[in-house]
Structure formats: C-alpha cells, structure tokens
Amino acid sequence: MKSQQNQNLPTSMFKPFYSHLQFTNVLSCIIIFGCGLTLGIVLTFHLQNLSFNLDFTRLDFSPTQSLQPPPPAPQPAPPASRVGLAEYLKPAPVTHDMEDDELLWRASMSPRIREYPFERTPKVAFLFLAKGPVPLAPLWEKFFKGQEGLYSVYVHSNPPWNETEPEDSVFHGRRIPSKGVSWGNVNMIEAERRLLANALLDVANERFVLVSETCIPLFNFSTVYSYLVNSTQTFVQSYDLPGPVGRGRYSSGMSPHIKIHHWRKGAQWFEMDRRLAIEVVSDRTYFPLFQRHCRHNCYADEHYLPTLVNMKFGASNSNRTLTWVDWSKGGPHPNRFVRNEITVEFLERLRDGNGMRCEYNGKATSVCYLFARKFLPSSLDRLLRFAPKVMHFS
Asked: What digits encode the pLDDT tens for the residues 231-287?
C-alpha cells in the first residue's frame, strides 16, 4: 500500500505545472496571432496610402489647365484590301534592273490554263528597235491618240543614249534596259528577245510587232489593231533561198539540231502572238547555235526567226512580213525616203499592197502591209500633213 502511494506521488505533484504550461502556450499563440494581425493591418494601410500618393502625384493640378476627358476608345482598323490576281499580275516597270537571264526566265512563264479567270482586253505591244530617239514620234503619237488600254510601247535604244521623252509622250518612260547593238551582229537578236521578254511581263499583251525608228503605220490604229488581234496566224517572213546570201550562210556546226534543209531567210521585222513570243524567249536550243556559229557575214537577224518558225511553227505562220521595204535599188540596205518622195499617191499605193495580193485568215486581200520603212526625219512634216487624209488618223 505504501509503495503504491509512493508511485502516485510524482504525478500529483506535477499536475499544477502542466496546467500552467498549457495556459502559457495558448497565451503565446494568441499574442503571436495578434501581432501578425496588427502587422498585416499596418502593411495594408501603408500600401494603400503609397498607391494613393503615387496616383496623386500623377495628377496635374496646374491652374492653367482643366481636366481633360478620357480619350475616345480606339476605332477598329479598316479591313485590309484584298490582294487578288489583278494585283499579282500588274506588269513590272520597264526600268527594272534584272539581268538578261533573269528577265528571260521570268518572261518564259506561261499558265497552262488558257481561259483567263478575269476580264482581259488584249493589247498590241509595239517594240521599237532604235539607235537612239524615235524621230517620227509625232506621227506615232497621232496613231496612238485615244487608244489607251489597247497598246503598249517598248523602246530598245543603244547606250549611251538615255534621254527622256516629254511626260505627255507615249514614249515617256518606255525605254527598257538596253545593250549595244551593231548591224548584222547576233546581238540584234538579243535585243529583239529583250524587247519580247519585257513585253511578255504584261499579261494583257497578246500580239507583238517589231518596228524601227524609221517605220511608219500605213493605217489608223483601229484597222491595225483589228487586223492583228483577229489574225489566226503569225507574220514572220520565211523562205528557202539557194545561193551565197541564203543557204550559203549556213554553218555545218549547227547540225544535227539545224540542218541545211531547215535553213530559212526572211525580213527581220516580225509580228507574232503570245505563244510564239514565249517560245522565242525560252529557246535554249537553237539560239545558242546562232550565237556560236552565225557570225560575220551570216546576219542572224535574217535567219534566226525564219529558221526557228519554219522548224517548229510553220503551220501557224503566214511566211510573210507586215512591213513594206523597197529593195529595188539593190545593195545591203533598202531605199530611204525623204520629204519630196512622200505623196498621197505613194502612200495610197503602199496601203493597197503596192499591187500585191496576199492571204489573211484564208481569204485573199490587198491589205498586205500595215507598216513601211525607211522614212527619214525630213519626211515627217509631209507625213503629218497627209496622215489625216490618207491613213485616216483622227
């Protein structure tokens, strides 16, 4: 019994101590909670006061200015204009800086779908191969007047001539990047391909006419436009000519791609459709042969296109030129016409084919030539005088 009492003695002795310890713990927790709550309230009030002070300092209480109303809400941006096919097909400016290989590559592109998914008015591209300026420009100005949207003009002139035409001229800004050209040299074909390539960048150009600075139109624009746009054939003169100035210019180095029986001769001044123009600028088989083998007395401008067209496009070609030239006096150059040779009778004779009959879309016609050359600058005043009466320029 005594032993049991001794064992319970420590527990009873420490009960007051344990009670005091529990009370101390509870009190400590209350104090800590109170301190935390107080600190939180103080910090919250301090931060609110700091924010108010910052906003307060941003206000402008200048006595000379009144409070402005809030700015209006931003308006939604207008919808972006549609970039459709018409924007994509806009022709490149003729003042581009493409190299020839870049230009020819770009011009060789052709859609395989022949139907156009937009309204398209075909245009006639007039390609002027000139030494410098176009001295008969006033006559051409009358020819083109009032026909905007139906034609394009491109001029290739020998460097260093780079003068600009008046801003109201159809020739203003129409000079393409040009390189030197010499008579009888293959670089004349390079210039023709350069002209064609630039004109092909405008998808509206459907027919392509090569003329020189000495060429004149024999009919008004409406007649010429209708004749070309409605033609079922191209107009590249091509014929076989035995002898030294024909087959005698052929080089065996062109074989096997071009053989002697393929060789043809013809006038340089052509007219062609878009399909043939694309083939000409894309040619990487026959033209390099002319560059290598048609030199000196070969005269590539008289043989390249006639031979190419005979080999690949003979069925769709008329084998005649639309540009009249007088070779009656002989020699390497045609006759040149000066002022006193320009008469009403002379021009009427040219318009009537000079007694020649030809075929147009399967029917016989006397309208065989639409253009003529070579007319010197001295002939301009008479041409301007007779144009309204003879050529019916308005």
From this structure: 999 999 999 999 999 999 999 999 999 999 999 999 999 999 999 999 999 999 999
Tokens of 220: 């008004």
Q: Cα–Cα distance between 214 and 220 in angstroms, integer?
A: 17
pLDDT, residue 71, reads 72
Instruction: List own/partner pairs for 245-253 with CB under 8 A and 24 or more apart.
Output: 249/294, 249/297, 249/298, 249/299, 249/303, 251/293, 251/294, 251/298, 253/289, 253/292, 253/293
Q: How far apart are CA 64 and CA 284, in angstroms?
A: 80
Distances (CA, A) of 166 to 54, 163, 283: 67, 10, 36
Give the side-chain half-sphere CA count within 13 A for 152: 27
Q: What share of the chain is helix, strand, coil (3-state, %, to 5)?
A: 45, 10, 45
Which one, of 334, 349, 278, lies nearest residue 308 by Cα? 278
Chain length of the chain: 394
Rounded Cα–Cα distance for residues 115 and 169 (Å): 34
Q: Which residue has the tokens 């000139």?
A: 130
216-217 and 371-372: which strand pairing? antiparallel
- Residue 238: both structure tokens together: 């091509």
CA triplet 177, 181, 184: central angle to 5 degrees?
150
| Strand ranges, E, within the chain | 123-130, 151-157, 205-212, 216-217, 271-273, 323-324, 358-360, 363-365, 371-372
CB 221 within 8 A of CB 387: no
Cβ proximity of 257 and 289 under 8 Å: yes
Which residues are 154's β-sheet partners?
127
Side chain identity, residue 96 = H
What does pTM read for this prediction? Answer: 0.78
Bridge partners of residue 153, in order along the sequence: 126
CA distance 388 to 142: 9
Q: What is the CA radius of gyration of the chain?
A: 44
Q: Rounded CA gap, 139 and 380, in Å?
A: 7
> Mean pLDDT score of the chain, rounded to an integer?
85
